Structure formats: C-alpha cells, structure tokens
Fold each of these.
Amino acid sequence: MFKSIFSPVQAWLLSQGKCVGCGMPLSKATHEASGESSEKVTCKCHRIYIFDKNTQKYRRALLNEA
C-alpha cells in the first residue's frame, strides 16, 4: 500500500534532480567519477545515486554500486 503512494513521489523528485530523502538538489551533492559515462553522487543524508552523463538523469544506486 505505501509503495504505491511513495514510489510516484520519489520518481518525481528524481526527475527534478532532488534527493528522495531530504529534497536537496543533487547538483549540490558530492560527485565522483564512476566510469566514463556515469558519476557516483552521495547526498548529505548518505543516500547514493548514479548520474548518467549521456541522459542527464539520476537513479538510485544498486547495492553492488554503493
């Protein structure tokens, strides 16, 4: 039940380039290289994202990427 409520909100926040936990713009978070076409982004609330340079979009990192 809760997943059907929170999932669209989290997807909207990521499409806006904001952290799903604290709402901080991910452009202000810590970026480090993680391959040729991606960056590992760590928010101040310690959530980890992957930024795809080709599509200019963020996504949550998988467990093996963290």
Amino acid sequence: MKSIKKAIKDLPVIGGLAKLVYRLIKPENIYFSSYWIDKYIPNEPITIVQIGSNDGIRGDPIYQLVKKNKLWNVLFVEPVPYIFERLENNYGDEPRFKYENSAINEDGTNQFFYSIDKEAFDKIPNLSEDYNQIGSFYKEQVQKLSEGLVDEFIVETEVNCITLSELFNKNGIVSLEAFLVDAEGYDWKILSQLRLNQFKPNLIVFEYLNLEESERKEAINYLKKDYYIFSFRIDFLCIRKDKIKPKDLSALKEKRINEKQ
C-alpha cells in the first residue's frame, strides 16, 4: 500500500490542497507570541498590561489583536515623551485604553532614562525606525543595541517612575489576563514585582535577551511553579499550567524551558 506521503506526491493537486489544509490546521506562526495571545485571550472584557509599549505599532505583538478584539481593556506604559505621543495617536482615545507616560522601577523615584533623540532620524540618512524602540535605564545597553551608530544622539531624560503596584492602583487594575514586558534589560526587575498570589495572568511575555544569566534563572524559578515557559527568539512566552491545552504543550515542546534550570 502506498504511503500517504507517496500518494500526495503522485497527486500534485491534492498535495497542494493538503499542504494548504495543513497550514490552516498548524500555522507556521506558532513560534510568535501573538499567535498564543490570540488563542488564549478571548474577546471578552479582560485587562492587558503592556510595559514598554513604544509607539504601539512597530514590532508590536498585540497591535492587530487589540484592534480586532474590541472588548479588551489595555493599559499601555511608555516613558519616552515623543514616543508616548505617537502611542496615543496610534491607538486613539477609546475608553477601553489607558496610557501611562512613566517607567516602572523598584522604588518609584524619578530616574534618568536613555533613548535615541528623534533628531537622529533627520540627521542620519535612512536610519531605521527600529531605533525608536531602543530605550533603557542603562546607557551602555542603548549603546550596545544601537551598535555605536547613534551614540551622539543618545539623550538622557529624567522620567516619571512608579512601581508596578502603584501603576496598578493608579489605574484600577484588579485582574489581569495578559502581562507583556519589553524593557531592554530591566524586564526581570519589573516582572519580579508582579504578585502571583494576587495576579496570575493566563499569559506572560517578556524579553530575556538583555538579562543577565542570573536574572534569567531567577525569572524562570519565579514562574516555573505556575507556568510553562517557552523560548521564542528573544522572548519568553509563559502560559499558565492549568490553562494550556495538551496539544499546545506538545506543539511547543521544542521551545519549552527545562524547569530544572
């Protein structure tokens, strides 16, 4: 008897249809956090908090999803003033959106923040807008990520800072379905403030690329009791153990972080 694979090769039309069906059943984008956010966060009146929202569009995993899911309530947090203005313009003034022009730190005192001056995009020909996404409490981190190309345009700005608890209290956050952090090396210091005994979102996504190895391990240890953790390029995707479906756990087995770390 011919194998299914051989039969498909012998019938190219059917083979093409089979491939299409396969892609619909198992899309190629399962290694993007947006796929899982879309799958596990229903279009219901739930709350999402995004720390380090940038302009809300460029390289953003939830922009299209937020536009599609009209019942989601989202709190966007971005410290750089001119980027924050773009963020507000890109999402608009729908009542379901809240905005915080602040950075999250550990004690709530104002702090210097380093980013790329918007003049750089006028002075350097063809400079990618991706450089708008580089911002950190650590100047050396900005220099590293920009590879020295825009050193003369790195600006130091004193930004308003609050703790995560203060952010939640200020904005009336009492429940949380998804928590996203992109803070260029400060991610663990923010994530560590999330009280899992009070808030246990279905999904947590945070960037690990710029963390110290010790911080990565601390983050994994902090989450591994309640979450399966998967490595996606530069991010960790964390899905609650009591929410994940067995078939999804199997589909992501190659990306799963060893809990013994």
Amino acid sequence: MWTLRTPASSARRGFTLLELLVVIAIIGLLMALLLPAVQAGREAARGAQCGNNLKNIGIALHNFHAARRSFPAGSDALGGTQQAWSSRLLPFVEYDALASQIDYTQAWNAPGANLAAASQDLSIYVCPSGLTSYSGKTDYGGIQGTSLLSLVAGVGPTQAFGCGVLISTSSQQPSPVNAASITDGLSFTLCVGESTDREGPAASVWACGLNCFAQNDQWVNMDALGSLHSEHPLGAHGLFADGHVVLLTDQIDPTVLGAVCTRNGGEIDGSAAYAN
C-alpha cells in the first residue's frame, strides 16, 4: 500500500534532523567544557597521592631518627656502597621483608639479592603524575644542599653539597645528620623533594644514593636533572624535616629556595617557601 508523503511530514522529518544536529552540537560543547575539568580533577587526585607519599616518607624518617638517633645518610658514599636513604627506610615504610633481602655492606646493585631488590617497584617512591616507568623507579630525591647561595663547592657541613639533611657520607662528614644539627629549624629545612622523571637510571632508582641532589636551578620545575621538578602544573612537592609537605611553586624566590635547602645557613625567614 502506498503512502502519500505530505508537506507536513517532510517538514517534520527536517525538524527532527535539525534537533539531532543541535543535540550533537550541545553534547560536543559540554564535552569540550567538561574534559579540562575531568583532567584537572584527575591531576588533583594524583597530586594528593604524591603529597601523601611524601607525608608517609616523613613519618618514616622520624621513626628512623627515633630508632637510630639520626636521619639516614642520603648515600653511603664513604662506605662505597652508595646505599640510599630510601633503601634504609624500607623497614619504616612496611617493606621489612624486602629490607631483609638486602646486604647493606655491599653495593646497592651488587649481583644477586641486592640487584633483585633494587628492581622492585615501590609505589610510595613514585609520583603518579610521572611520565616514565621502569623497574625500581623513584621520583623523590634527598636534599644534600644547594648551589644557589654562593657557597663553596664541597661536601663539608657548610659547603654546597653537604649542607642539607640527607648528605652523602664523606671523610668530612662521616656520620649522618641528626635533628640537633638542623639549626635553621626543622620546619624551615627541606629534606626530600620531588625530582620526577630524572635522567640517568642510577639517579632515579630508590636503592641508589645518587637519587640525592643539591638544588641547582633557580626555580622549581626549571630542569629535571639534579633539581626539584615535577609534572604537576603549579610546582613540586617538598618534604620538610618536621614532616610537613608543601607544594613549592614556580614563583618561589631563588634565595628562599636555596635557604630552605640548607640545614645550618642561619637564614631568618623561610616563610616565602610556603607561598602557593
């Protein structure tokens, strides 16, 4: 049976198609508006997880200090093992079994158990915003000092590469740092900072003391090599020696940035480090 198409039915079909096109355009516009918000929400969650990692590391550092009466050495350079602060913390971040596999008298990557342990992925040492992934990665480095304050280059307690909290042991500083030697105040002294996606495999492995660094760049997020750096949009997280965590912004004054990387520089005011 044939059906006669009337002008009204044709017009109705055209109007329905127009409605569909409008709906598609509205959906596209909403998606364009919502996608940045979704991405921002995801990054906020990743940033919160990163900050929480550092808070837990701070608790572990204080528990280590309570047990050993000092913070761990950033690296056992004097003993030649290059065992890292983050490796020494394993029993205090609930990795007792992994710590028991490591021979701390041997090099961090000695063939056998040490090398096998160093290849383990530990979520507490990884920032979820990082772009690279490999075995044993860490995105957090111990602060050894800074070259921003015209200090003499060297590893002594008042020199550029030895004035921080997590130092490499040396003939000039054979023992790790304790809280009493942080004369600038625990709340004004960085001990661990984000250094996400660092170049060089040894410098970015949690078991290796080369993951420590002295702050060289004048601004946060300027360079990924040997400085505070993250994939967060506003700055990089820093853990202070009293256990609190701050997002250090890209706008932080270089002098203040250098000041908070020293434990004994005699700086009076580090409050600008808290500006977000």
Amino acid sequence: MLSKRSGFVKALRKEIKSRSIEFSQIEENVNTIYFGGGTPSVLTASHLGSILRDIRKYYPVCDNETNRDNELDSNDEINVGSKPEITLEVNPEDVTPVFMHSVKKAGFNRLSIGIQSFYDAHLKWMNRRHTAAQAIKAFKIARESGFDNISIDLIFGFEGLTTDTWRENIKRAISLAPEHISCYQMTIERKTKLYTQYLKGEYLAINDQFSFCQFSSLQSYLAEAGYFQYEVSSFCKPGLKSRHNSSYWDFTPYFGFGPAAHSFNGRERSWNCKGINSYINGIQNGTRLYKTEAISPKDRFNEFIMVSLRKIEGIDKKRLMAVNNLAELGSDQIEIDISQTEGFGQFITEEFTETLNSFLEQGDLIEESGKIKIPPEKLFLSDGIIRELFI
C-alpha cells in the first residue's frame, strides 16, 4: 500500500509540473486549490505538503497574506485581497492532532469534513468507516489545530431518516458552528450497491414530498442559526462561501490533477483516465491518458441556465438576453473577459420565452433587480424547472 501511495504521489507531482506550461496559456492566477474528489486524507501530511509546495512552485498562486476580512462587501464575498482558499477533504477517521497540525502548517486553510450523519446506524448503512463520536471529535481536533474555516457534509432524503432524526442531525451540525454546511439529497446511481438493493426491493426510495419537507426544515433551521443559502445544496456564514465551488459555477477555468480529474480551459473540458494504475503508468511513461470534449454554444447556454438557477442570485437577465457581439469589438477590446461579454440572446426562441414566462406567472421563477431566480421555497424543484428551460 505504501509503495502504491508513493507511486501515486510521484505521478501526481509529475503531472502537476508537466502541465504548468499548459496552464500559463490561459493567463490566469490560482485563487483556490482543492484537494478532494477522492480520499486525500489517506495520504500522509508530508505527501500532501509536497504536492502543495509543487503547486506553489509551478503555478501563479495569489499569495497575498492579508488577513481575511469577514465583513461582507457589496457582493457578499470575502475581499479580493484575501489569501488563496486551500481546502483539504478529510474523513473523520483519518483526523488526528498530529495530522491536523501538520497540514495546517503545510498551508491548508480550509477543511471539508465528510460527516454525512450523526447517527451510527445511518453511517453503517452508508458504509462509512467512522462513527458519530469520531465525527464530532474530528471537528473539535480541527478547531483546536487552528482551522477557522470548516465545511461539513450532511445527507437527507433516504429510507430510515425520520423527521425527528433529520432535525436532530441539523441541530447537532449547528451546535458545532461550522462556517459552511453542504447538504445533499440521497440519489440512486446506476451500478452502485444502493441501486442493486433498490432493484431487489431491499431499499425503498422515499417520496419527493417527504424529501421536500426535510429540505424545508434544513432551510428554516439553518437560516435561524445565521447561515446564508447561496446555492441549492450550500449554506454558509456571512462572507464564507466556498470560493472554489463558486468558481465552477461562474465558468472560471480550472485544472484537475490525478485519476478521473476534470479540467476546463474556457473552451473545452478534459478528464484523466479513472484507473489509478493506468494513471500512474501513463504519467511514468510520459503519456497522460485523457479525453477532451469541446463545449458547443448550445451546451454552454444550457450550462449557463443550470448553474445560474442553482445559485440563489439567479440568472443575469441582461446577459441572458444579449446577443454575442464579440465580432464587433475593436482590436483594443479583444482582451475583455468573455464571461462579461458573451450573450445568449441567439438562443432565446419563442418556445423558450413561453416556458420562462409560464414559470414566472406560476411563481416557480421570480424576477428581482435584473435577476431571474428560483424563490427559496421552490429550490427543491430546481432540477425540473431547469430541465424545462434547456434548449
């Protein structure tokens, strides 16, 4: 196991170094770094520190060490002068005082702890290795180690989660006072153990109305506790959104390293091969195994609708209705950020307008201050609303 971990880290560091030239072509600085999408906490603090040092060495990380200002600015964001957000996903069972102190010293300043539930029976059913007591202990160790920006994950909408146990889960989460809480509805994915149980009748999916009630309780309790919902599944204390996740929703270019990692350069997406052995062998042989996909204007429009309506701030109506006039820009304007000039007016068909107006009339969408958004009480229905607006 140790040799495979070392081989993985060696390959990962090699990919990070080799792709730095590619990154330089998009002429962007690195404002957020996220170690996750797998189980990074199974690596040693030394491994994690060496990977982070390589990123700082080969990429233009914005390292303004100005102390974070928790006061809200006009955009509900942390001030631009903040140091980069560097997040590490950790499993509760991997958290120890020595590990936490070491990763804090290495430069990580934000944690995402996969708690999922504060009930052992639920955790066992989810095949999680930690207990509720371990989850609480892990959070406290993180606090004692100096982490002042911690996110935790919770899951709702599954068989066995009663109204009372869900409310207790929320209350326990609030009692820890994390800066950020992500809550996801349980979904049945194909080719999973849960999907097999569902087909055999061993698992019964709960109805949407029951999940809606749990989601509404979540919104109510967290709002009362001072948390701001800024995206369907994301809640934070004032000024402490996940800057990394917010970048995905704003079409900011990003680079992903490691098996199955995705990247986006503003024009196309790419993703590495999934298998860790294939990944390691490919990198060692000087051949990164990956695929690419160009993003068509139609796909970009649909993604714009999806990510905008998942966010509480909603769709910028001016951008939605504007026609793309990039071709008419003068030569001295070519450097303007495309995200500020690209319009989608060419996709606003009569059918799209009728559907949009219908949702507005029904109250499933509202228009405020130039933004079209889903009202908080309808966010649980966001997937259905968004699908109807796709072209």
